[in-house]
């Protein structure tokens, strides 16, 4: 009996796995199809909304659409490697989708239909060769070899992404190719039926997985981050972006730093010297005159032959020795109309281990009253007001202090009471 019950459980588990796998294929294996026609057809053949269409039904749907039409329509199938409903509905911050030119084509077409879930529509159109249609394959990047007349099925394979291309750029490049090829086909045939679909859903992983290797730009002259370290390894500075210098009211573009040196000749002072092109020099003045702590007091900026300007910040940049200072927000050093701005930076001088190239534990610049603390104080204050008001209302309730005695005199309440 135990063996029979175990075998029944195994059989039911296998059936459940098959059902789940079938449902997954039904949901994720189908792809959307966008169809448009250059000429209006008298035949009306529609499917229920949100209906999953099999490959055979879609093939019959296309045959009914082209049967008896004069001239015989040219069917252009634009095939993506993968496509999903989100590719049609996505929009950027300006309200532009992936297919702006295709949207214009479909809005001006004689007929447009959208089928959200079709099983293997590309293969279904290929089977039209059994009904007298001749198939022709074309790459989207090679528009040569387009058919000269009607009565054919043209499969246009849209090219894969290039090395430096993401999906929005890929689909917008395909959008331009679709509009270009469609306009050429219209010049050769008056009745063109266009399809845009994919070989598989974007939600299904492909059977063949390829790895794309991307190289950095060798011609780049600037980096997205800033890193200063003197040759002696006595100080280290890092920022996620380049500093912004406004000298005497005018912004000065800074390239990469060319020379970084350090001066720790004095016992309690370190100077980090940074030179930029054009002729700009910065000096970070560190000291540890307070026992156990270091400070960044000022930054001296010299541009060209002008005298150096000492810049200060209202933020106190201080940390214990062998620890770094980190600020995730912008920090501005200012003196009159000259400002030097750093974003998300970390700095540490006076390394106990000479030549160290990594930061110690960081002291974060966080204000005591953070937004979370202010929110907690506000909510607590609001709840306190509500509680006080409720207690006042409860304490103001007056209960009866006299009751009727059936054996005694009836209580009478006068108007003054």
Number of E strands: 19
Number of separate helices: 7
Uncertain segments are 21-27
How far from one another are the termini? Answer: 87 Å
How many discrete structural domains?
Answer: 2
Mean of all residue-level pLDDT scores? 78
What proportion of the residues is helical, as a percent range?
A: 10-25%
Shape, principal axes of CA atoms = flat
Structural class: alpha+beta
Strand content bin: 25-35%
Q: Specify the biggest β-sheet.
A: 7 strands, mixed
If you compute it from the alpha carbons, what radius of gyration comes out, rounded to the nearest whole angstrom?
A: 38 Å
- Work out the oligomeric state of the chains in this entry: single chain
Order of helices and strands, N to C? Answer: HEHEHHEHEEHEEEEEEEEEEEEEEH
